[in-house]
From TrEMBL:
Gene Ontology cellular-component annotations: cytoplasm
Keyword Nucleotide-binding: no
A Pfam entry, by short name: PP1_inhibitor
Protein name: Uncharacterized protein
Keywords: Acetylation, Phosphoprotein, Protein phosphatase inhibitor
Region (Disordered): 1-38
Any one Gene Ontology molecular-function term assigned to this protein's record: protein serine/threonine phosphatase inhibitor activity
Length: 133
């Protein structure tokens, strides 16, 4: 099978170690109807604590944006507050300016949101590259 023909199924409940199984997609004629599973190992782990912090931060950002724009989550204007981009910036002044630019069409005051966001991301790590353990 080529890489494009493989579907990845993560099965954490089968073992305390992370496992990846490869399954032949439905509709291929070269395999019997029962899925073929080969066990593989995930060799790189993300720092779970950082992932949890990031998830909590993203949920907080969504809650704050729904308040700032006074709307439901689905109606928030399309804007992307990229935490990794902010972490790459040299200073809080640059970060604040970037977030302020993203919120340019928000009519409510955004200063408190920006200040709290910068406090929350201080000390966070970028998640674009996984950490090896």
């Amino acid at each position: 099978l080529s890489d494009t023909d493989k579907h990845y199924i993560y099965s954490p409940e089968t073992s305390p170690q992370p496992r990846v199984y490869f399954q032949t997609p439905a509709g291929t004629t070269e395999e019997p109807e029962t899925p073929v599973r080969k066990q593989g190992r995930v060799t790189v782990k993300y720092d779970r604590k950082e992932l949890r912090k990031r998830l909590n931060l993203e949920e907080w950002i969504i809650d704050q944006l729904t308040d700032l724009y006074d709307c439901e989550e689905e109606a928030i204007p399309e804007l992307e507050i990229d935490v990794d981009e902010l972490l790459d910036m040299p200073s809080d002044v640059d970060r604040a300016a970037r977030v302020k630019d993203l919120l340019v069409d928000c009519f409510k005051p955004t200063e408190d949101f920006i200040t709290e966001l910068l406090d929350k991301i201080r000390g966070m790590q970028k998640l674009s590259t996984p950490q090896k353990k």
